[in-house]
Amino acid sequence: MDCIFCKIAEGTIPSNKVYEDERIIAFYDLNPQAKVHVLVIPKLHIACADEINADNSGEIAYIFEKIPQIARKAGITNGYRIISNCGDDGCQSVKHLHFHIIGGEKLSEKMA
Ligand code: 5GP
Ligand code: ZN
Questions:
Q1: Which of 25, 37, 60, 71 makes an SS bond possible with 32, Cβ 3.0 to 4.6 Å?
Q2: Is the CB of 59 under 6 A from ligand 1?
């Protein structure tokens, strides 16, 4: 499967990592949309939020357990926003489930 984020998870495509363990990886977005913009992905390929089920939801719970630590490590100290785009109307461009963590500055009150 030709998936950029699987390749980042395998290490075949380099990334600027914030955190990594056996289940997840967090790295800086190539095209940041806030002062701090980190992506968190499960190493397991899940296409998007539509594909979360009872068998793989443990990976998502684990990501949310780790997000506070990842945000702190990225230098975020005053709150952040978590975004996951899904499908065409959600403007998802990479079809491997990921969570955008944005912060490091006051964000827009509008989300869309
Ligand atoms: P989406 O639009 O699917 O929610 O978000 C995909 C994100 O991945 C975009 O913000 C884009 O900048 C980022 N991105 C795409 N390719 C790469 C890459 O090879 N490396 C990194 N670090 N970020 C990427
Ligand atoms: Zn993938």
A1: 37
A2: no
> Is 112 contained in some domain?
no
Domain, as residue range, for 52: 4-103
Looking at residue 9, its amino acid is A
How many structural domains compose the chain? 1
DSSP H helices, 26-88, are: 57-73
pTM of the model: 0.98
What 78-81 contacts at long range (C-beta under 8 Å, 24+ apart), as own/partner pairs, is 78/103, 79/103, 80/36, 80/104, 81/107, 81/111
Question: What is the best residue among 93, 101, 102 to mutate for testing ligand 1's pocket, by most ligand atoms within 8 Å of CB?
Answer: 93
Q: What CATH number is given to the structural domain containing 37?
A: 3.30.428.10
